[in-house]
Each structure stands twice: as structure tokens, then as C-alpha cells.
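lol ok so funny story. i was supposed to be doing the assay writeup but got distracted and ended up predicting the structure for this chain instead. priorities right. anyway since i did it might as well share w the group, maybe its usefull for someone
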Amino acid sequence: MKLQNKNAIVTGGTLGLGRAIVRAFLNEGASVLFCARDKNAITALQREFASSLRAGQKILGVTCDVSSPEQVNAMFAQFIGEFGALHALVNNAGIYGPKGPSQTVAWNEWKRTIEINLYGTFVSCRAAIPLMEKNGGGKIVNLSGGGATNPLPRLSAYAASKAGVVRLTETLAEELRDFRIDVNAIAPGPLNTRLLDEVLEAGPEKVGEGFYKKAIEQAQRGGVSLEKGARLCVYLASDASDGITGKLISAQWDSWDSLHTHKTDLDSTDIYTLRRITPEDRKRSWSRENA
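and the output, tada:
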């Protein structure tokens, strides 16, 4: 098992991809604390997964709003008391936020999206880093998505927050490289979860004809399997990925299960990162006039 004797925290762990990640971590031998805001969903999931635990494994669900430093710190304190050492953190909690033209969406909803998706990721990383430093290393996996690499008209809060998550990931990776803490972001691909349901419910008037049409097609095709993203999280939390850090990896398109065989190239290039493209990168030569 790839995560035998490891302890992990998974945020947003009761629905969709988060639930699949919790299940995958348990199947690979990890003990898991997961959090969400719905107490009833937490209780039900803990009861469901507890029946299949192996000897020595633990699972614990707690209520937590990841945008609240006080609640996150309390969750981590509870984790230390129940589990001890922290080996992996998966920041999965996130929302789409308001849908519609940026100038018309509610400011409080826009801000709330940044608080959950970006602030929440940072707050949990901030709490995890001292524990991992003390432990001599660790793994942090942040959930990004298509909003980080492409404009998403009418979903500006989601797009901005997810792009911020990737640059935060790259920055923390450099800060923590000497502490053997690997920090990566993943793009799980188009998933048929509650986020897709929100887009379909919002309709083309709010999300735009093009995005709505893609959502309809995704719902009909079935989307990318949740298990694919969960398996990528397992890989990045395992010893097999040691030293791979500061990357944005697609569960759907990248050959991530063999990334460790390309570690030299990953360390020496900007592969799987967000970067500014210059005219020269596209074989253009634009002379600059002297001021």
C-alpha cells in the first residue's frame, strides 16, 4: 500500500472528489482526518468508512470552515491529539462562487469565493507547515482547475482564486524545498459533481452559451472519473513522488504516474508551471523602440 502508516488531512472531504480522495487514501493504508461544513454528512461518511478500516487505521471527520484561521487551527490541534505526525495535506475544499458578468455579481459572494478557495488553502498550508518541518518533510496537494490556465468569463472569482492557488503552490514549493516538503497543485479535469449541477442550474444567461453547452455535453458524456484525480493525490502524497514540487499536474492529460522518472527535467525546466509567454516564445521578434 502506497500510504501505509501515513497520516493525512483532506479538506472538503464529504462530497465528490473530496470523498473519493478520502476513500483512496484509506484504501492505500493512510489514516485520515477530513473536514467539511455539513455535520450530518461528516457523521454519515465517518460511519461508512469506519466499517472498512484495517488494524491501526483511523478516520475522523470534523466540522471546519477552512477560511477561518481559528477553526483551522482548532482542527489541526485536534489532529495532533488524535493522529500525531502529519504526512500529507490535501486542500480540496472549494466553491464556484457567483456566476455572471463580473460587474453584476454580488461583491460578498465574489469575496467569499476568494476566502474559501485561496485564503482557505493558505490558512491550512500555514497550519500544516510547522508540523511537517518538525516531522522532517511532508506533502501538500492543492486543488486547482481549468480556471488557473484559461480565462473563465462569468466565473471570475473562481478563475482568479484558482490561478492564485497555483502561484501560491509554486511559491511555497520554493520556500519549503530545503525542508523536504513537496507542494503541488492538481487539475482534476471536468468532473460531474455539484459544481457541474450549479452551472446547469444557473443556465446560459449567467454562465454564457459556450460554457453552458460544454456543461451539457459533459453531463451527457459522464466527465472525468473522480478516481483519476484521487489516484493522482495518492501519488503526490506517496514516497514515489519525493522531490517533485511546485508543479500543476493534470489528472486527465499528464502521464503523472511516471513523473518520478523525469525528475531531472522537472527540476531544470518550467514544465507544468504558469509562466508569462513572450513574443520570442512564439517565434516572433518585436523590436522595442528606445525611449
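DSSP finds eleven helices and seven strands in the chain. Residues 115 and 217 are 31 Å apart (CA to CA).
back to the writeup now i swear
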